[in-house]
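Let us walk through a complete example step by step. Step one is to write down the protein sequence. Step two is to encode the small molecule, zinc ion, as a SMILES string so that its atoms and bonds are unambiguous. Step three, shown after the inputs, is the structure prediction itself.
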Amino acid sequence: MTKALVLNATLEPLSVVTSRRALVLVWRNKATVVEVREEVWRSAQDSFKVPSVVRLNTYVNVPYHRTVPLTRRAVFGRDDHVCQYCGATAENLDHVVPRSRGGSHSWDNVVACCRRCNIKKGNRLPNEVGLALSRLPRSPRRFGWVYTSSGYRVDPSWQPYLLADSA
Ligand SMILES: [Zn+2]
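Step three: the predicted structure of the complex.
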C-alpha cells in the first residue's frame, strides 16, 4: 500500500497515512492534493491520481513536541549499526561520558559501539583510552518519525517538506 505525507495547513509534516486515507481526506474536503504519484486508481466511473502529499485545509494544533524515543534500535539506526569509535559492526550501546561519572542517558551521550571498544573504554572517557568519536552524537531529525512510519520509504516528492529539518 502506498503512503502519503499529510502536511498541516502551515506545510509542516503532520503524519504519514495510506494514499487511500489521503484520498478520503481530499474527498471529504479536509485536505488538498499537493503532489501526486504516477499511479492512477480507477473506479467504474472515475479515475484518480494517487496522492503522495496532501495538505490539510484547516490548521491542526499539535500541542506536543514529537521526539524519537531513545532505544537500542533507534540509536543503531542513527549510527548505521557502526561503532562510533572504530567503524566496526556495533553490538553495544555506549555512554560517551559514563553514567558512573555523571553522563546522561540521552541522544547526545549514547552511541553505537562494538564489543571491543566497549570493553576497552569501560568506565572511562574516550580520550583516556585513546578513542575518538567519528562524529558527535545528536538527537535524530525532528521529522525522524516520517522515516520510521513510512517504513523508511520516503517518497522523493516528500523531501522538500522535510528540508526545514536539516539544521
Ligand atoms: Zn569499536
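Step four is interpretation. The chain is about 20% helix and 25% strand.
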